């Protein structure tokens, strides 16, 4: 109301002032936290180059590390399988839960709350915590890793799918109802075609994400390429560990490129 | 014949959206409901196929009361009532042909509907209907690649696929340019005459309503203030239909769009 009587100059002066205040607050927070943890910005920055040089000297794969290529590729393959299978299983179940839980398609309002709460519980427990909890029941195996990723992904995708479905214009479903379509026909002929491409993007994104997480989980569950990394690292075979990091990076980049292609094709 | 008798709708407590609404619409005629925004045009139209549940009255389509129908009867009745919308409401990633075939869903088993199992006859008919509305060459195009006017014609073809007795049109031309408006309205008038359909249209363009409709229903603040042939509509009638609501409260009862 007041702004109606402002001149443009006044308006933009206020804008700049507000931005200035925000920046000042951020600087103060940085300064205070630095003092609290006894962190010296300059001294730490100086150490970075030396650290990097040490890293490159020790972790660059050498000719010797080529001999490890066989087992590494095998474990990398297994890790990829765990990541993909857990994501696919979670997305199938997540889709069903999302349809039951989305405002526009939920058959029971009570169910919505339960699904919402369950999904956010699953999602907010970090995957590492999942792995450690599940270790007790399922021991060190690929299946433990699979389950940990499955639960976290299920929570994440249920939430994402629910929101995608809720973004859909409810009138489109009303149009199908007006035709005489029943609930299942509305869902399969209306909702699914409308959201399919967005959901596929989410699944592809989660596969990328889960490959990274699967290596981490592998360290804990003693499986896959994560375990191998941990093993080489602890036995001072840094070059082999470096090779693993390199190969994971290559695989992730390949995966990202393919999924970008797929996304473009279905958009 | 569609007969609406003493239709009543309240939102919340005491907020009357429709009060004692009575009118009839004949096969072979275009009936237009006109009135100011928020008068209750959309509520009437959506009560007719029970997308909105009203609070009292009768809606007789060929002497069958739609309001008394149970779930599966309602589905059968809806199958014979086509509906087109201001925003077309097609399933946009699907092709025009698939959207037209959706008109058969009301007659299909759940299973056949879900898996899109349509007979050759149905597919041929859908294609013929697209040709009828002048969109044969766009049959395999995604609907979000069609223009507004074209999407509305796909909507009409979808309604025709239902073998309707009646087509409800909720502001069908509000988002269209004059040229598409003429095409769509010409098609609707032709359908009423040739197929003896009941065409019930919500309009806020008076000139279009007077040009195309045979029968006019005027509504103001949820009450019918005029019903009669379009020839009988003069300035006095229009003033009555479009008079300002004298109580400011009534503007709040608006529940359109």
Automatic annotation (TrEMBL), chain A:
PANTHER family in the cross-refs: ABC TRANSPORT SYSTEM PERMEASE PROTEIN P69, PHOSPHONATES TRANSPORT SYSTEM PERMEASE PROTEIN
Compartment annotation: Cell membrane
NCBIfam families named in the record: PhnE
Record family assignment: Belongs to the binding-protein-dependent transport system permease family.
Membrane topology classification: Multi-pass membrane protein
Transmembrane stretches, start-end: 17-36, 80-101, 113-136, 143-162, 182-207, 214-233, 239-258
UniProt protein name: Phosphonate ABC transporter, permease protein PhnE
Span of the signal peptide: none
Domain named ABC transmembrane type-1: residues: 76-259
Main location group: membrane
Organism for this UniProt entry: Lactiplantibacillus dongliensis
PROSITE patterns: ABC_TM1
TrEMBL record, chain B:
Signal peptide limits: none
Domain ABC transporter span(s) in chain numbering: 2-246
GO molecular function: ATP binding
Keyword field: ATP-binding, Cell membrane, Membrane, Nucleotide-binding, Phosphonate transport, Translocase, Transport
InterPro entries reported in the protein's UniProt record: AAA+_ATPase (IPR003593), ABC_transporter-like_ATP-bd (IPR003439), ABC_transporter-like_CS (IPR017871), ABC_transpr_PhnC (IPR012693), MetN_ABC_transporter-like (IPR050086), P-loop_NTPase (IPR027417)
Protein's UniProt name: Phosphonate ABC transporter ATP-binding protein
